[in-house]
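Intended use. Records like the one below are meant for learning the mapping from a protein sequence to its folded structure. Do not use them to infer anything beyond what is encoded.
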Amino acid sequence: MYVAKGNQFLHNISLTELEKKYNAETKAKAKIRLQCAVLRKKGKSIPFISSVVGKRESTVSDILRRFPRRGITGCYAIKQKGQPPKLTSAERLKLRKALNKSPQEQGLPFIIWTTKLAVHFIKQNFRKEIVGRHVQRIIKSFDMSIQKPRPEHVKANKKLQAQFKKNFDGELRNLFKQDMRSPFWTKASSH
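Structure written out for the chain above:
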């Protein structure tokens, strides 16, 4: 799309107004955009403006096309809203309360919360699919930290361990049913 130049460019704003706005501007990006507008108002070509401001010709053209649509405020970027939150504040509160209790209290046959278990819980209770990495961010915002269990020793005697586990009472036996290599969530320690 062709961008007018000279007095045809921003015909309702004078060159002196543009230069005053340029001189008064403190934000770097807005200043560059205003410089492009001043040079175009002076009748300069897009390749010349590109060489002066150090931007690609397509970028300069995009900058200049903003001004006729938005006026002198075209030098400022429009704040982008971003993606809406996956969970509502009520759902986040419900999730936080659920994670403060054990999975068994929530009707799940597990001892501790893992990220995969939290993803499953969200899918079952809120009918929303959220990837594990985002669930980790949500849980971390609840002041919980992820803990990685100690690795299993390569030379461990499996028979002695099995015999030791058999002698445990039923309540402690559940602790050994979990996968000891999966990271799990705990309340963050307050230092």
